[in-house]
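Long-time lurker. I teach an intro course on protein structure, and each term I like to show students one example going from raw sequence to a predicted 3D structure in token notation. This year I'd like something fresh instead of my usual example. Would anyone be willing to generate the tokens for the chain below so I can use it in lecture? Attribution to the forum is fine with me.
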Amino acid sequence: MVIVIFQQDRFIRQVTSLIIVGILAVVSIFIGVQNLTLVDLFSLTDSQRIVLFSTRIPRTISLILAGATLSVSGLLMQQLTQNKFVSPTTAGTMSSARLGVVLALVLFGSQTFFHQILFAFLFATVGTFIFTLFLRQIKSNRSIMVPLVGMMLGNIIGSVGTFFALRYEVVQNVTSWLQGNFSMVSSSNYLLIYLAIPILIVIYLFAHYFTVMSLGKDIVTELGVSYHRIELIGIVVVALGTTAVLLTAGSIPFLGIIVPNLVAMKVGDNFRQILFPTAVIGAGFTLISDMVARLVIYPYELPISVVIGIFGSIIFLYLLLRGEHHV
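-- Reply from a regular --
Happy to contribute to a lecture. Here you go:
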């Protein structure tokens, strides 16, 4: 009886959160310099139709999928490393993907989007794998040490990328990937973000295996599960999701840390149970941050990375202090 009531309560919360994200998505569509209201949908002008289908809807879809993907990717990385402060931005994944984009531009030019995707994915995978190797050498059990190592690794990789960008004069081409910004998202360049859908499905299908990873390598192996194979699948999925977001809107900090931690504080640490709320709240948080970015200096617009960076850094510091207090 108690289990049934709990499941019903969780279902109600899930439906409610989806409705809220849906409302935020609708509001997002009607925010912008071009005047567009709900009434206008019944008699769109040519310019309004172009704005709606070429920019507003693609942007809103990108915000939802990017927020969900980065949040779930952070949750997955935290599960794999058993550290609450690991995410694509603190594990060198994002920096490695940017380096891949720079090298693709240097070698193949700006007209080869396929090579940018391929290089970003490969470098993100290798960079994340290198980070996991570093983790195995860290003897300290203090949780703060892990993201520090990741950020140092990311800074080194980022410096290498900056060197190549300056050396081969591709700085202007990579500027959009250095700072998250959805203002340039349109119907012609946002389709890669749909890769987030199969990524989220794969994470859900493997949720049971990712959950048992928290038991440790020895116990997981005794259960008949290949620890390293599941770890590799997790790394590849995170790298692919990071690449999709990076090449669509650029680098977005903190989402992969703050959203999973805030959800876990409320719901608990079970990976399967917090997977859905992490994705939904990540999408909602990204939508709200983008609205703030568009309205705070209207009619101009801030990069969303600035807004998320401000709120995210405050929450991140709180999580750090709280985590150290509980160590």
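Some talking points for your students: Residues 216 and 222 are 10 Å apart (CA to CA). Residues 1-6 have pLDDT under 50 and may be disordered.
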